[in-house]
Design goal:
Elements (H helix, E strand, L loop, with lengths): L16 H7 L4 H27 L4 H32 L3 H5 L3 H8 L8 H8 L5 H5 L3 H10 L3 H24 L4 E5 L11 H4 L5 E6 L2 H10 L5 E5 L2 H5 L8 E6 L8 H13 L1 E12 L6 H6 L10 H10 L5 E8 L5 E8 L2
Parallel strand pairs: 1-2, 1-4, 2-3, 4-5
Antiparallel strand pairs: 5-7, 6-7
The structure holds S-adenosylmethionine.
The site of S-adenosylmethionine has 18 residues, from helix 6.
Length: 347
């Protein structure tokens, strides 16, 4: 098991302060100057993008170009400047165009009161549940949506869903009919629609925990009469050990660690390892610091995520290593926009 040394890349918003201080100016006047320069650069970019979008030809390409440009600007000017620029972009008149995309608008409006709710992810899955929202979309919004949900981040999220279903199915094959699974921050548990083990009744129980009662209600309706057990619960409850839900062969969290500070991520990982049966696996996923859609997401979508590097993932895995854990690995999905950690407990 090779453990990479901490990489001083300075590329992400969660890079330690010491690194970004070194690479980017902290002085207020310098930052203000740079914000002006970055705003001027954005003005040129958005001018070109809106012309291309209004031309009615190859709008998906125009959105792709805009997303790439915003990523580059974010990277080039660094966190302090980007934090000033992102709200300016959000309140720019172009937001009215981009937010015709139902996925972008849902994220910006936050109908559930927080970022990254399960319905937002349903847009990425193109789940039938969002067909009513899609039906209300303008032709321009639909064209923009065709690219936004096929950008590298959403592609990685769809792959993540397949990976989760495969882990569940592999666990069922390994363990047999006593298989117990726990999904933390389950959302709508859409990976269950792809699980052969669930379809073939090869699981004892699949506990789906989420803090949003509407998501829990959706799971309860869709999976009544199955072994899926929806639980209205939170990370806080798990950490406080208020939820006594037993021991599991597989525990996973996807779309959650992206919002957790390192301290909470480490604590949650420790608690999850305690809840594993011998031979069990804990998996958590995080958007990686190589993700390409961050500028668009943080500006027009007002969707901020904590991106993590390989070294960040290892730090969490290493600080939770115990005498009864045998192995940890950190690996990327196909397009490297999502990074995964798996930790196994001794049999
Ligand atoms: C991005 S969605 C991910 C859904 C699903 N895991 C997936 O991969 O499609 C994030 C989910 O995390 C849940 N969540 C966020 N913070 C949470 C917390 N502190 N405790 C429990 N659930 C939480 C939200 O309610 C939401 O359903």
């Amino acid at each position: 098991m090779t453990k990479p040394v901490f990489s001083l890349d300075g590329r992400s918003l969660i890079t330690p302060q010491s690194v970004s201080d070194h690479l980017f100016p902290r002085n207020g006047a310098q930052i203000a100057d740079l914000v002006q320069t970055a705003a001027a650069e954005f003005a040129i970019i958005i001018n070109v993008a809106t012309q291309r979008l209004s031309s009615n030809q190859n709008r998906a390409d125009a959105v792709k170009w805009l997303i790439t440009q915003l990523h580059e600007v974010r990277l080039k000017y660094g966190p302090a400047v980007w934090q000033e620029l992102a709200p300016m972009i959000r309140s720019h008149s172009s937001a009215e165009i981009l937010q015709q995309c139902p996925f972008t608008k849902w994220s910006f409006d936050k109908p559930r009161g927080y970022s990254g709710d399960a319905t937002l992810i349903d847009f990425i899955y193109r789940h039938p549940a969002i067909s009513e929202e899609l039906a209300k979309t303008t032709p321009l919004g639909r064209d923009i949506f065709e690219y936004t949900i096929n950008a590298p981040g959403p592609v990685a999220v769809r792959e993540r869903r397949n990976i989760l279903a495969d882990f569940v199915d592999d666990t069922a094959t390994r363990v047999g009919p006593d298989t117990e699974i726990l999904a933390i921050a389950a959302g709508h548990l859409r990976e269950a629609e792809m699980s052969k083990a669930l379809l073939e009744h090869r699981l004892k129980r699949w506990v789906a925990l989420d803090q949003d009662p509407i998501s829990i209600g959706t799971i309860a309706t869709q999976y009544r009469k199955t072994c899926v057990e929806p639980i209205d619960g939170s990370v806080r409850g798990l950490l406080a050990k208020r939820q006594q839900i037993g021991q599991f062969d597989l525990i996973y969290a996807a779309g959650l660690y992206d919002y957790l500070s390192e301290k909470v991520a480490i604590r949650l990982t420790q608690v999850c390892i305690e809840m594993l049966k011998p031979g069990g696996t804990f998996l958590f996923a995080n958007f990686s610091d190589e993700m390409a859609d961050d500028g668009y997401m943080e500006s027009y979508m007002n969707w901020e995520l904590l991106q993590r590097s390989e070294a960040d993932m290892w730090r969490i895995a290493n600080s939770t290593a115990r005498a009864d854990t045998v192995d940890a690995s950190v690996w990327y999905g196909h397009n490297r926009n999502i990074i995964y950690t798996t930790i196994e407990k001794k049999s």
